[in-house]
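Incident log, support desk, overnight shift.

02:14 A customer reports that sequence design results differ from what the structure should imply. Their input is reproduced verbatim below. On-call engineer (initials T.W.) acknowledged and began investigating.
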């Protein structure tokens, strides 16, 4: 059986604590719904030792995150949450750069994605 490894792109900045809880909930829901889809959010590890509110540490996290895209450690990128954040824009650009398919978890995100990236 082939499992699909799905990178969960979601806003972190702002209400960091609640956004992290949302990311875990989304991963939980996706994995329980279809155990052939394995969601992951590697940036959650970096948030344990980097402070997203400090610009230099945020940039370190973004650079580290790009390595997952460069190595194509995911089969797809799923855009999740209420809107596309600046951090998610980086993830979208990485996915486009490294030819990784992008899926939107809602119609609103699809609309926002099309508006920003399909000009």
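02:41 Re-run completed on a clean worker. Output:
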């Amino acid at each position: 059986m082939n499992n699909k490894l799905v990178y969960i792109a979601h806003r972190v900045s702002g209400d960091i604590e609640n956004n992290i809880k949302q990311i875990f909930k989304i991963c939980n829901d996706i994995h329980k719904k279809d155990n052939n889809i394995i969601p992951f959010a590697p940036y959650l590890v970096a948030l344990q030792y980097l402070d997203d509110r400090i610009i230099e540490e945020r940039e370190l996290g973004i650079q580290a995150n790009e390595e997952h895209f460069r190595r194509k450690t995911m089969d797809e990128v799923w855009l999740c949450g209420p809107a596309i954040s600046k951090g998610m824009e980086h993830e979208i650009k990485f996915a486009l750069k490294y030819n990784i398919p992008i899926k939107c978890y809602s119609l609103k995100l699809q609309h926002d994605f099309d508006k920003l990236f399909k000009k």
